[in-house]
Design a protein that fits this description.
Largest sheet: 7 strands, mixed
Number of helices: 4
Mean pLDDT: 76
Low-confidence stretches: none
Strand order of the largest sheet: 5-6-2-3-4-1-7
Number of strands: 7
Distance between the termini: 231 Å
């Protein structure tokens, strides 16, 4: 009985010593290791190759590991990844997380993008469940190169399929024949241009000469324009001054004539109202007198001068 009691006591002491040794080991490990911080990352993409214990790097430098991976209960489109990084890792505003895959099938979480002088990513006080839903800060995400390609793969395949269909519709037998005809015409045109090479060179040379002559003609026209401007400035200006003087004199004469007309207007009005009617009556009387004199002259011519003093003689009557 006493032997059994001693064995139980020894066993209990051994267990206590083992537990103390384990606690001492953990304490020593914590003293020798560095402190860590935990963050949540919500990926809206596939996290193939990522598992618990996967490496976390910051700008390519190993900085921590993945603690857990699970679908987010609030929205199954997102995958919640809990990571822990060294306390001295600069997880600041502007830091983003990306899943980097590899050809070996393993993936890592890459952090980068921190700016100098930015504040660390922390949870607000008081706690906000919309910002830190699980009590730790959240690092925003961005798509990596492979992830972006994989996410856009369906669109790329659809566009490739559409492009293939359009190319198939374009390269029909009729269109191929048309394209072949265009190529043949192009070849003939190229051959014709090659044959006409000397003529084209001569034409270009003549064109160059014509352009040079046109430049010289333009220069001569410019000189002529300058000469014309000088002539106008030296000869035409005095003529214009004389013309202006003549116009001024003509205007003065016109004004004098207008004044004379205004002065003679009463006499002209009296002449037209009084003298002209009397002259008309005199002309009518003269016409009447002239008619009478014409009648007398005609009578003298026919009957003689005696017709003016005697009666007209009747012809003799003879009986049958």
């Amino acid at each position: 009985m006493e032997t059994r009691s001693n064995h139980v006591l020894v066993g209990a002491v051994v267990l206590i010593l083992l537990a103390m040794l384990a606690l001492f080991t953990v304490w020593i490990a914590r003293l020798g290791g560095t402190a860590e911080k935990e963050y949540d990352i919500f990926f809206r993409q596939s996290v193939d190759g990522l598992a618990r214990g996967s490496q976390v790097t910051y700008s390519g430098v190993p900085s921590g590991q993945v603690k857990s991976i699970a679908l987010w209960k609030n929205d199954p489109q997102y995958v919640r990844v809990r990571i822990s990084v060294n306390d001295d890792t600069p997880v600041l505003d502007g830091t983003t997380a990306t899943v980097i895959g590899s050809f070996t099938g393993t993936s890592t979480v890459s952090l980068d993008g921190a700016r100098k002088g930015a504040r660390p990513i922390t949870c607000p006080e008081p706690p906000n469940p919309n910002v830190c839903p699980y009590g730790v800060p959240v690092i925003p995400t961005k798509q990596g190169g492979i992830g972006a390609i994989l996410n856009s793969a369906p669109q790329l395949l659809e566009r490739l399929s559409t492009l293939t269909e359009r190319l198939t519709g374009l390269l029909t037998d009729r269109n191929q024949a048309s394209i072949a005809g265009i190529l043949d015409n192009t070849n003939r045109l190229t051959d014709a241009l090659a044959d006409r090479g000397p003529e084209i060179a001569a034409t270009l040379a003549q064109t160059r000469i014509a352009i040079q002559q046109a430049g010289e003609a333009s220069k001569q026209i410019g000189d002529l324009a300058q000469t014309t401007n000088g002539l106008l400035a030296n000869d035409v200006q005095p003529t214009i001054q004389n013309l202006n003087g003549a116009i001024a004199s003509a205007q003065q004469s016109a004004e004098t004539l207008n004044a004379a007309v205004n002065d003679a207007r009463p006499g002209l009005q009296a002449f037209s109202k009084q003298t002209m009617p009397e002259a008309n009556r005199l002309i009518r009387d003269l016409r009447t007198t002239a008619a009478a004199l014409s009648a007398v002259a005609e009578k003298v011519d026919q009957q003689g001068a005696s017709s003016l003093i005697g009666a007209q003689k009747l012809p003799d009557y003879k009986g049958k």
